[in-house]
Amino acid sequence: MKSTRIFTHVDTWVFDLDNTLYPHHVNLWQQVDARIGEFVCSWLNLSPDQARKIQKDYYRRFGTTMRGMMTLHGVRADDYLAYVHKIDHSPLEPNPALGAAIAKLPGRKLILTNGSVDHVDAVLARLGLAAHFDGVFDIIAAGFEPKPAPQTYQKFLADHAVDPVRAAMFEDLARNLTVPHQLGMSTVLVVPDDTKEVVREDWELEGRDAAHVDHVTDDLAGFLAKLSL
After folding, report:
1. Could you tell me the pTM of the whole model?
2. Helix, strand or coil, per DSSP, at residue 12
3. Does domain 29-84 sit in CATH 3.30.70.600?
4. Could you read off the pLDDT of 28-73 as tens digits, one per residue?
5. Where are the domains of the chain?
6. What is the assigned CATH class of domain 12-25+93-225?
């Protein structure tokens, strides 16, 4: 472990959803990514290649493509979310080891995601993890301001009465751990295990050595199970 920030004081465990609670190589997010591309292509009447460039530009600049489409093109969030999350969740398999590890954590377990509650519910149902979480803060609760916007974390902390100094955050994107670390949270970056092919942008896999990343793991269940609490 690369940090002195430990977990014995933690009473709130905060997890991202996609590529964090399930392995990167499942590539479930690639289905959503493809649906986003289709939405952008249709809405802006662009070629697939043009739409792809716009999609990824907005993702980087606004935190989500949706935020860019809302801000610059008047897209309604409900229409966007309903379309892009209409995917096949069957690649996800139950993960009893992760469930057992989460169940043993003392205190509350919450999800903080740029996705929607409907998507969270579908994913947790497939993973068999729904019973282990006490609440969800999704993109709608965030007022459609995605991570890594500072106000999104502040609203999350306020809505769920979380003391950041007594909380830990698990994420697959290093940039989404910058603000949590500044607020005093212990931060964990969940990365691919390098044994299977993953489809990610290069920047999405950066940040393992960043100062705001306290710990890095490619095995979330194993990491949690080994914590000394």
Report:
1. 0.88
2. strand
3. no
4. 888 989 999 999 999 999 999 999 999 999 998 998 899 999 999 9
5. 12-25+93-225, 29-84
6. alpha beta
